[in-house]
Amino acid sequence: MVRTLLAPVLGGGERLDVRDKVVVITGGAAGIGYELARLLYDRGAYVALFDIDAEAVRASAAALGIRAVAITVDVADREGVRLAVGQVRENFGRIDVVVANAGVVPRPATVRLLDPEEFDRVLAINLTGAFNTVQPALDDVIAAHGHVVVVSSCAAFAPGMGGSPYMVSKAGVEQLGRALRVELGGTGASAGIAYFGVVETAMTHDTLDEDELGAEFGALLPWPLNQRITARRAAEVIAGAIERRSARTVAPAGWEPYALLRGAVNVALDHKLSVDERVRSLTQRLEERILADRGR
Description:
Blueprint: H1 2-10, E1 22-26, H2 31-42, E2 46-51, H3 54-64, E3 68-72, H4 78-92, E4 97-100, H5 116-126, H6 128-134, H7 138-143, E5 147-151, H8 164-183, E6 190-196, E7 198-200, H9 202-209, H10 212-219, E8 228-230, H11 231-244, E9 248-251, H12 256-274, H13 277-293
Parallel strand pairs: 1-2, 1-4, 2-3, 4-5, 5-6, 6-9, 7-8
């Protein structure tokens, strides 16, 4: 009974076997994107890796084999992505699955001292880039009765102090995924959202581990929200979501209660953080560092 009630949320319907299917993955040169490509390739899929790093994406595709193709493209370049999608269509004759995974984080900054160009850059890649990737492939996905995954983040519903562009972009990606899920409902195709907490990637190490203030911000996460998963595990979650046509997936599992109860939790949490002396101290030190870097 419970499973029946949750079916519209968790997924359901005809499962999707990726063997002989064509999958487009952005951010495919490394991290979650490459691990997903490797996993799906091993299951018999054809994979098109999109990435801005030409050398890295060529090496990643070559490491997979003849059913992988590398395409150098900046997901923020709308026309470039449209042409890249067309190249996949020409090479393989079809597109069954699209995974909008490419993402970046900004250098830590408060909204007051954030460089507006940095805000624009993060949204152009994380949010507009997801739209640029998905839209030109939708007719193909619908024709194939395929699936779309947009990679959001648990940051979409977590407090955004010190990194608001990332949280804003991932909240936008969530809404893009929800719209797709509903709009594709009568087409035979499907869409879902993947939310991840802290994943062991180069981006995470740069932001939370190698940056002193970033590490202190990260230390504010309580257990189990501070638990990390590997890029491989994140890829396994996405691969399973594709197969099940899941509407949403959340990992690590400790974030699930927060995801479900965020409407109530965030009201109290935002107040708590706004009066927390540790957060106030970190915010002040972050602004002092930015001003020092600017020579003020």
